[in-house]
Amino acid sequence: MSSTGVIARKELLDLRRDRLFAVLIGFLAVATLISVGVAAASFRSQLDAYNLYVQQLTASGGTTVPAAPQLFPLQLLRGGVEYLEILGALFAIVLGYGTVAKEKYRGTLQLLLSRPVGRFAIPGGKIVGLAAVWLVVVAALTITTTVAIMVIGNAPLQAIDLVRILIAAVIAWVYLVFWSSLAIGITALSPRLSTGLIVAIVVWLAFVLIIPQIGDTMDPDNQVPGGLFATLHIQKSDELKVLANFAGFDGIRNGVEVSSITKHFERLSFAFLGIKDKYNQQPLGLVWADMWGYAITLTAATFAAVTFAVGVTTRRNLQRKIS
Amino acid sequence: MNTFVVSARHEMLSTRRARTAHLLLIVFIGMVIASSVIGWVTNQTVTGVYEKVVADGLTTAPNPFTGVTPLYYARNAVIYVLLIGSLMAIVLGVQATLRDRKAATTDLVLSRPVGSATRLLGQLAGLGVVLAAVIGISFSVSWVIISVINGAPLGWADTGRVIAFGLLSWVLLSTFTLLGMLTGLRSKRETTALLVPFVIWSAIAFVLPQIGTAARPVSLLNPVPAVSSTGGYFDVVAAITGPFSVTEQFKRASSIVLQDPAVTGDATSSVLILLAFLAVMTVVVAVTPRNRMRSGLNE
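Output (structure tokens, whole complex):
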């Protein structure tokens, strides 16, 4: 087996024994399951309120019954996707950091470097190992949440829904590999390990929380509870016409949002899962036609992060200072 | 000079020298200052949208922003305090206690006639001064920006509200500093010391509010409160999880103090909950045994 393969296998073995890793993934799984359960409870609550309203309307002689709320099972995954984009990215950073840090803390780095390993074997093996771990984690989360939708959400799934979930899982995997690779690179570049972790967390804070938050709060429709246009009783078509007059502002707002890789992940996932109303129940081809740009940028960013990690995780950087 | 003051001064000096912590401090100050400008630009656009809607005859509803106070522009700062400020406070807290354990200086300090509680509370006081300075700088600049946007200096009443918001922010950030200090004292590994409070923070900021209100994680980062699910399950669970959702209590109290029209009611209960958490965390950290403070790391 090549030295890259050996290091990748060692990563898998290390993480299998790591209790912190188990706790983090357990927390992510519980949070995701809770989000599915809460979303299902929220829908049932809406349905109860609707039934009560219809009952009272019928009793008072009313005949114009409004449309019943409709459950789209994949929309129960919205909270789970958001947890992955926030907590998943954080945990991916921690794993990326940990994979470099442990070699320094345990003193195994010197041993590793004393062996005839190739220039790219250490970073390559670590990235391959983490990518394999994330593949397993994403697969487990996907299976768990799919079962949760059917059992907790009591929502039947069609074959096309499973395909959509599978696409979302692949997107999540790419996104998590991006953050782990970035963390490996940042940690390798940092002379002090704690600095590497804190810098990676600041990057996470900026790109996962702050930039999307700025874009979100600049959205005119997010200025009033329940939405500005809903409060003013404006139809969707009229809303778009009005907003067309503020294209400059919306362009800046959108520019802020798309400068974060997290938004690319979110928009792709929401589109393929039909969480965004515009793409709900739309054919996959139509969604892809609108979203291929985001798929390319997410893939390119991940490729760049991997290249960065491989490029800077050199013998010289790793040995610069052991702290 | 007594132990308390020496520990406080030492902590301030150490924080001043910690360049990594400066990164977070700068991001925090910058974003709080920027929040006023973001709030103003957005408000101008939304007012324009409303005027366009009225001009097109699409609504007769009143402008939802009529009569908002100048402090409306500061509402984004609430989010940055609980987002950047809390994480900054955690990092400061972790570094404070972990620094002594890593360098084994605790052994030296505790060989002197020094009480462990006095030492820890002194460190907390030092960090409290750092937090107060950071909040003071960022909110002062924010006050100037809002005054410029408003065309006149904020009145005494509004200035008092900004100060009250600053005090609330200090209480929240001190609580998270204590959380960081606690994990810095209790963890066996540096990674765990930094990560555990982050996980607790994310559970408090995202998971707890979601369980009780069905609010989505990302929507909790918007200063405008999400429309909560109510009735049955949600009423019961929200009553249990609500008091533990410290960040939501902070958002509610701050929004009321800043006269955000989207949030109404009395801030007293939220303020009391924030103070209770601060008191509990202070006691938990202060009773840390000496042998725990002296324990080494497993890395």
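Residues 19-59 of chain A form the longest helix (41 residues).
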